[in-house]
Structure formats: structure tokens, C-alpha cells
Amino acid sequence: MPNLNEILKQWQDDPSFMSNVTRWETVPAREGSYVDFPESLDPQLQEALKKRGIEKLYSHQAKAIDTVLNERRHAVVVTPTASGKTLCYNLPVLSSLINDPTSRALYLFPTKALSQDQVTELRELASDLETPLDCQTYDGDTDPGLRQKIRKSGHIVVTNPDMLHSAILPHHTKWIQLFQNLKYIVIDEMHQYRGVFGSHVANVMRRLKRICAFYGSEPRFILCSATIANPGELAGQLIEEPLEAITENGAPQAEKHFVFYNPPLVNHELGLRRSSLLEAKNLAGELISKDIQTIIFTRSRLNVEVLLTYLRQGVKSRPGEDSTIKGYRGGYLPRERRAIEEGLRKGTIKGVISTNALELGIDIGALDACLMTGYPGSIASTWQQAGRSGRRSGTSLAVLIANSEPLNQYIAGNPDYFFGRTPERALADPDNLIILTNHIRCAAFELPFDKDEKFGQAEVGEILQFLEEEDVLYLSDNRYHWMEDTYPAEEISLRSATRENVVIIDTTDPQRRVIGEVDRFSAPMLVHEEAIYMHGGKQYQVEEFDFEEKKAYVREVEVNYFTDANLSVDLQILDLYGQETGQVNRAWGDVRINALVSMFKKIRFNTHENLGAGPVDLPETEMHTTAFWVSLTREAYGNMTLSAIQSGLIGLAHLLPQVASFFLMGDPRDLQAVSQVKAPFTELPTLYLYDNFPGGVGYSEEIYHNYREIFQAARKVITDCRCLEGCPSCIGPAYQGGEAGKEQALKLIEVILR
Amino acid sequence: MKKDLGARLSTMRQTGEIKTGRQVAGNLEKQKTKGLFPGQENEVDTRFGHCYYRELRYPLDHLHGKSKLSGILGCSGPELALLSRDNTLEEFDPKKSVFIDVETTGLAGGTGTWAFLIGLGRLEADSFLLRQYFLRKPGEEKAILSHFNESISGFPAMISFNGKLFDLPLLQTRQMLAGTAVSEPRQHLDLLQCARVLWKKRLASRSLHSLEEALLGLQRRDDIPGAEIPEVYFNYLRRGNTDQLKKVFEHNVLDILSMVTLLERVYLTACGTTLEHPAETLALGCLCLEEGEVERGLGYLRETAGSSNAPLAEEASLELSLYYKKKGNWEEAVNIWQEALKNNPANLRAYIELAKYFEHRCHEYQTALDLTKKALAAARLNRDTHFNRIKDLRIEALQHRLNRLRRRLEG
Questions:
Q1: pTM of the model
Q2: Nearest CA-CA partner of A215 in A187, A183, A239
Q3: How many domains does chain A have?
Q4: pLDDT (0 to 100) of residue A441
Q5: What is the 3-state secondary structure (H, E, C) of A106-119?
Q6: Facing A575 at nearest CB: one of B11, B22, B237
Q7: Binary contact (A470, B21; C-beta < 8 A)
């Protein structure tokens, strides 16, 4: 790729560019480590591989085959992007199915799109085998006419945990052929199953193993993960079985330039940096105009559309020609997405702007450059996104463009994390009481519980008794039977509190059409009336949002602004689980959160100036969760005025969720903060941090115990920041808080840590 | 300090994070059924334990609604096979059939729904025998399911109302879970499917209760609504409360007896013996035509076309015309369409069929164009009619046709 090398040279020779670079790491090319096909691999499969030009395996692929087929152990394989990961499970599974075509395998991917992609790849490989093996996806899109056939005769059923949870397990008698003969369960993208989602999935696995035991099968698990510090631990939490962790990577690696780019300060006093989006626009514009196929990751759907608009303005396509720059995100329809994926593989699309939807293993071929606007939230995600450029050979580029958020600034200042051993630990809590109890309901629906039965490793006698007292279960002959007129899996979503989406309907033409959807919690922010909804680089104005029917009607418009909604949050304490009182009170417990979008602003493209505001008239959403809070008595804050306290609290509310999430290995959005100068419960100035998930996932309790570490880190972020009175990188822009926000926030931290 | 588990669980109860039923009111005397119900009560020992059922016997001249149970004696297979589009029913014999209807702990389906009352009816010499298996406690399920399976195994045919989608799969799921033999009837007549074919155009609802009122001359009094049934069983199981249980048993009896008289009515309609309404004649005509009984079908359609019910007559004519068109009998078809337009100048379908005829058969594009224009005008007047469901009749399709005809006239 001579063009790319030229650009890199130019950048390196440009002092103004290099002044923004906090680290330029050249990851050298590396030879692969190859081995011959193991004997245990069926000859048919060896032939099929040779036909595809594969004569040898990478060492980790052979190790996976050996562990699964010969040692008959469960395995977790940890490999970076583009290291032939899928063969690590496809080879042992196919080889085993060729030998015994009555056996079955179940593949789980976190998204439908990935399932689709995998089945295509599997079928190609299977088509070269003499033994006919049937590989099928089974999800919400599966043709009802095909479903029965898949249940009876699909050798490899590819689905997602949600479908397993809500459709397959509760109807396990229809899947008797699968469960009686289940030999392998493949869980790819394992690192995605952490936090709330992971805690749910671990319980779905407990249910799955329970059903397998009922039908007399004992499947072997093969898990695959991006690089994390604790793959064995997470895998163990998910499947609760001893397993072999395969971590050395035998795949070759091409040279890769990894650039950490911190946009220049545009306002020293305010600590404001140039927008990462605008920087990405410039860099991507330059790369794409020189014919370098580039993927740009953004943190939100909105940013996908904003950037798409910017880039299309810059790179004009010839009239009548389809643009070579595309957007790609969750709200697009499957057909659109397939076309974009194909365009990327064929090279007809030069630039794609995506949310993390393209982070996972969807096949889009090898691109030359990857730009990340903002830290993707975890080191593992960063490497996965960076891995989208440069798969096998030739130089490739990855640029991480920091934004002004505290965590981003921390990362830009500490890039070492990326090149040593990753500090990231992905954790799930399968025993979260709400999650566990809800899955016990689902499990009891599927099969009665024996009185002293364990659920995975969990002792659940007390929970079963509780559910019996609640008239959910019925105890008879020492077994707990499901006795309720409901279908429990239906009301339990593995991913969030809600599973109902709002559909977006374009009414521009008389023939209305659905152009996308958004989840119910985001809907008040994104599709309130008068909102500008962006899709496919076009702007649509929301004309009507039918909250009850979950439909938003939009019409195409062309305006010079986008909209941004304000969310206000009200919090009430319901129950106290722990507290320490004194001059400073710390506590954690149950709270009720009421969130309301009350207004929105119109913001002009490019200059980002405020063009006006409007009201939003939508009902509030309610959530019960756990929170940590700290309140200050008069003795503690002494002579600080209430307005000074308020200004400090607003600053801390901005900073703490971000700092805490770094310690808790969560997404900053999993934690939220609210401050009250005079809290109804304590009557004192109070700062709350709450788990942004019904029932909580244990973050608040963790913060309660480790608050010192978190507040100390927050103090460091504030003192290290070069702004004067607060900026987005520390306590938020000064205009949001109040007078001398930094000083007041630091004072409060001192009081809390005293 | 974290609260103990019990306290946290009870908090979950208060905040509603766990969906639950009510508090237990206390364990009253449980599972007392003996002497509760009229009829012959039996408790039998099976190799899987005890099971309970009661039996009721009805004379064949028992009047249910306006019909006697004996009405089904004359039902024979071919008509029912035609109606159900199922050849296995050719051999159907009412004397070798069992009616089934189950009462369940919910409608959700899946493995967590129980069948706690299985009603079974059959002809026996000079009477109709009705048996109800009742699940006194979960532990007796296996015994019931296997006894039930054995007692129906001698009967080739099962008759149900929505049993193909609900009752039978549910029983089979329970049997699989209990690890006992799975019932697989050789013939299965689902009366709901029959009712859909015959009465779709006549009745807005084809629920058993609607059919009873509209066709069978039966009004239920003091019947328990189906939605309340699971709760009644839970109350019995948990609190020994039998107040409402009797009503569930009676509800189940009525369901089965109604299936008997419904079978007779279905059969008589399928034979063409009882056709009370032109919608029935039309439905039967369409069915016969589809299933290859052409002369019979045409007869019913002609009869409907001549009826005084204008919309149904129009529909029947159209069905006839489409048949003629398929057979190449253009004269008859065109005749019908022109006639239809005389009666109803907004008949979109007739315009379009004529337009197609003039465009593709006669190549008279101007005539076709004029007809399409009229069709378009008619379509714009009534946008929301059922025509929207037919692809050819949507406005875009009409517009497309119009443009094509214009091009043809120009070229």
C-alpha cells in the first residue's frame, strides 16, 4: 500500500500533526507458527481445507482441535482479530459431526448479523464435504416454515443467547433431537458476555445444561474471546466447568501503525479540545481521497450520521453514482447492511462509518485504515476495532482519536496499557439476586426443581422457597413445579430492562416504509417530536411520536442543524442496605429513578452553535436499581456556601461515573450520577451514583466499599487537567456547573476523603 | 453490611422486580375432590401411581342446544376429508373417534403449562360417555397421561377444537416431560379449522362460544370465562379451594358436548344439506372448486351469484368469472364482468379483469386505457378497501398499467 506509507511519512514529517500524537507505535510484522493437520481431523475435512488453499494450521488452531477432540476438555481460545479463530471451533465440530452425523452442535453469537455471517462461512466449508451437514440460523428472522425442519434435522444450529432464552429452552420438547444429541456448544465473542449481559448469559447456560442433563447429553463447550486479562475466569463463570485456556497466537501479523491522537486544545482556559469528530473528518477525508479503504468507528448512532454528512460533503461522488462512503449501524435494515458488507469486501465502498456494530467478526474483508473517534470503552474493543484494518499482509493504520471525556484523556496520557499485558478483567455476576431469581423462574418453567437441587454452582433452596411462598412455584412430592399463568422468559430481557423497540416510519412518500428502529429507553431522546433523526446520511424530522404504539412518523427534510435532547433525572431512596454515618455519610441501597426528557436544542452543523430549543412532551420512564450515595453534614462542609457545594457536586457528577467505570471494568453508561443540594431523604447535600440497570449489577455496592480509590483517582484527574475552571475532560464545562467548579469539587473530595 | 438473603428477597417483592402471585393464605385441606362432583368418580391404580377421573353418561337423544347428540352417527369421512384437506380423514368413523378438550394452567404454551383437566368424549353403544381426568396434584400427572393415552389408543380418530395447535401439542409436551408414551392419533379432525373454512365470511368470530350462539342454538348461563380457569386451579391446589372448580368441570363438559353438535353441523354444511346463508354456499363453492369438485363448486357459486345478498353475489360471480377465465371461456367471463359493472360501477376487480382482457387478448389498448382510468378513479375513492390487499388492484399497480398502456398507444 504505497499510498498509505506516503501519507504516514507526510504525517510523521508534519510537526503540527505530530504535536497531537501522544504515541506512535509501530507493531512489527511477525511470522506465523504453523503445524500439520492433526490426525484426529477427519480426512474429508483435510481435503476440504486443501481445496481452499489451506495446507497447514496455525498452532493455536491445532491446539484447540487437540484439546477438544483428543483430550475431550472444554476450551476457551483467546485470539486477536484475523487469526483464523472460527476454524478453532469449526474444525473439531465438523470433524466430529462427520464421524457421527446423528450428533448436533449449537453455536451462540451475540448478534443476529454475526450468526448470518457464520452460517455462510460454515456452509461454504461444509459444501466441500461428502457427508451432508446442515447448518442453519435460528432467530427471529427464520422463516416459520423452516423452523420445524431446523429443530429436527439441523446439525449445527446457529443462534443467539436471547433466542435460546426466550424461544428454544422454554420449548425444549420441540428440540428433542438437538438436546438428546448435543455434543458441542460454541460461544464466540465471549468477552461480550460481561456485566449485565454476561450475568444473564451465565444463567442461560445453567438452564441449558439442566435441559441437556434431562435429555442425557453432556455437551463440550468451545469458547472464543478477544484478548482480556482473565479469559479462563470469565469462561469459568459462564459455563461453570473446568477448562483449558488456549492463549498463544500462532497467526502471522503484518506491520501495523497504531497512533494515539489527542486533538489540539482550542481553548486553554476551558480545556476544550477540537472535536474528535471533526479531526476524524479531516483524517478520513484525506485517506479516502487517496483511495485508502477506511473504516471510522464512532461512539453513537448520531455521530455515524453526522460524520457521514460531513464526509459526503467533502468527497463528492459523480452524478448518478452511488456514494462510495456509507454509514453502518444497528438501525439499518438487514438488506442494506448486507449490501454494505459486500461493497466493503469488493472494494467498491471506500469509506464506512460505523458504530461498534462492525467491531465484531462480520466479514467485511481487510481494510487499510481504521479511525476510532473516542476510546471504544475497553482495551479489548479498541484492539478489535483496530483489527478491522490490515488482516494478513501489508502495512495498516489504526488511529485512536481521543475526545474530551475524562477517560479518553486518561487513555491518551497512558497509552502503555495497550502494548503490555492488558489490565482488563471482564466479569459477570451469575448470582446477582434479581437476575438469578428471574432465571430460576424460567428454569422452573422448563423443568421442575428438586427440593435440594443446585442451579449451576448456586444454592437456590431459599429462592425456591421464596418463589413458592409467592405462589410462583408449587411444592409437591419434594419438587417445585411452575404454577403460574405466564411465560416468564417473555418479560426478561438479557440485555436491558426493555425489549420493545420503537419503529421509525418514513411518511415522505404515500407508500410509507419502515426505515429503522430505536430501543424504548433511547426513544424519548432520539425521536421526540421535532427531533432530527438521521438515517443513511439523510435528515428526517419526527412529525409524530406515538409513545403507546411505539411508532415514530418522520418526513425527509434538509436543515442545517441536528437536535440534542436534555434528560432530567429524579431519584428516591427506597431501602438502605448499608451505611456509615459521621460527618460524612456513605450508604448504598435501593432507589427509584424517574427519567424525563423535557426539552431539546437545535445545534448548527460544523459550528455547533445553539439555534434554539423546544419542549418535549413525553411520559417519564421509571427504573428501580441500586445506588451508592454520599451526603455531607454541616460539620463536614463547614463554611462552604450552598451554591459552592452545588457547583462542586455538579462537577463530581460529571466525573465520577467515568472514573468509577474504569475501575469496575464497565461501560461509563452503566453508571449514572445525580446530585441534590438538599436531598429529600437526608436533607443534606448528596451525590448519588447508581447502576443504570434495573436491580443493579453490583457496581454501587463495589463503590461503597472502594470509594477511597475512586475519589482519589477523581482528584488526580482534576488536578492533572490543564483547564482553569472545569472542562469536559474533568468536571464538565464551566458553564454547566457554576463558579470555580474545579476548586469546589476538589474541596468536596477532600471532605469526603478526610 | 449487606442484608441477609431473605430480607433482600422481600425487598424485591416490594419493588416488584420479581413478578409474583399473592401471599399464601394458609394451607387448608388440600386435594379433596371425593364426592365433589356428580357422576361416577373413579380412582384407579396404574403402574405410575393413582389417578382420578369421573365419568358422565348421556343418552344419545340428549338435547344440547337445538340438536341431539345422535346427530353425529351419520357423519362420514369423505366430506370431512375434503373440508379439512386431509386424506387420512376419508376413513373417519364417529364410532371410532374420541373428542378431546383440555383445561390448562395458561395459554402461553411451552413446557411450563399444565393440562390439569383432560376431557374425553366418545360414543359407546347407545350412549355418549364423557370422562374427565383431573390432576389432583402434580405427582399424579404421569399416571393420568399414560391412562389417558391407553384409553384413546384404540381409537383412530381424535376430534378437537383448535387441538392441532393447542391441546394435542400440549399433551404431547407433558407426556414427553413425564417420560410416558406420546399420543399420536392417526386421524385428527380439528373443528376450528373446519369452522374457519365454512364461516369465515358469515361470522366475525369463530370461537366455540360464538359458534354455539350463532349455529347451535346454545346460550351458556353462568359459564366461567376461560381466562379465569388457571386461577381457579391454583386456588384449589394451593388453598384447597374447590368453590369454582365445579364450574370448570362443567365448562369442559359443555365444550365437549358442543363439539359433538358442532361436528354434525359442520358435516351437514360440508355435504350441502344445511346451507342457511349464502356465505356458507359461497364458502363451500370455493372449497369444492379448489379441491377439484368442479361441477359441485360451480353449482354452489351460481346459486350464491343469484342470491339477494349483493356483496356475496358479486363475489360469487367474480369467482365464477375467474374460473371461466382460467378455462379460456372468455365469453362467459367478459359477460360476468360487464354485468358486474352494471350492478356496481365501483367494482375495481371487474374493471381490471376487463382491462387485462382488452389489453392482452384483444390488443384494444384504448378500451383498456379507459377502463384502467375508471379503475383508478374508483380506487382513489375507496382507498382503504380490502382491494389494497390484492397486488394488482393497488394504486401503484393501476398507475403502472396506465403508463404502460399510454406507452403502447404512443408507440
A1: 0.78
A2: A183
A3: 5
A4: 95
A5: EEECCCHHHHHHHH
A6: B11
A7: yes
Predicted local confidence at residue B340, as pLDDT: 82
Is A445–B138 a contact, with Cβ atoms under 8 angstroms apart?
A: no
**Closest by Cβ to B112, choosing from A434, A476, A482:** A482
Q: Residue B27 pLDDT > 50, yes or no?
A: no
CB B361 within 8 A of CB B330: yes
Does CATH number 3.30.420.10 belong to domain B40-271?
Answer: yes
Probe site for chain B from A442, A471, A701 (most B CB atoms < 10 A): A471
Q: Are A138 and A123 found together in one domain?
A: yes
Q: By three-state DSSP, how is residue A241 classified?
A: coil
Select the residue of B15, B110, B139 nearest A445 (Cβ to Cβ). B110
ipTM of the complex model = 0.81
Assigned architecture for domain B278-410: Alpha Horseshoe (1.25)
Let me know whether A231 and A120 are in one domain. Answer: yes
Higher pLDDT, B20 or A522: A522
Share of chain A above pLDDT 90, in %: 44
CB contact under 8 A, A694 and B137: no
* Domain endpoint, select from A441, A473, A491: A491
| Cell reading at B197 | 373454512
Is residue A341 included in any domain, yes or no? no
A172-201 tens-digit pLDDT: 999 999 999 999 999 999 988 987 889 899
* DSSP 3-state of A588: strand
- Does residue A454 carry a pLDDT above 50? yes
Asked if residue B22 has pLDDT above 50, the reply is no
pLDDT at B21: 46
Percent of chain B with pLDDT over 90: 46
Euclidean distance between CA atoms A574 and B17, whole angstroms: 13
Cβ contact, residue pair B112, A446, below 8 Å: yes
For A136, the enclosing helix (H) or strand (E) is strand A135-137
Q: Which DSSP state fits A401?
A: E
Residue A380: predicted pLDDT: 83
Please compute the mean of the pLDDT values over residues A653-677 and round it to a whole number.
80
Q: Distance (Å, rounded) from C-alpha A261 to C-alpha A276?
A: 9
Half-sphere exposure of A664 (CA within 13 A, CB side): 29
pLDDT single digits (tens) A243-295: 999 998 888 888 899 999 999 987 665 566 888 888 999 999 999 988 899 99
Residues of A in contact with B135 (CB under 8 A): none
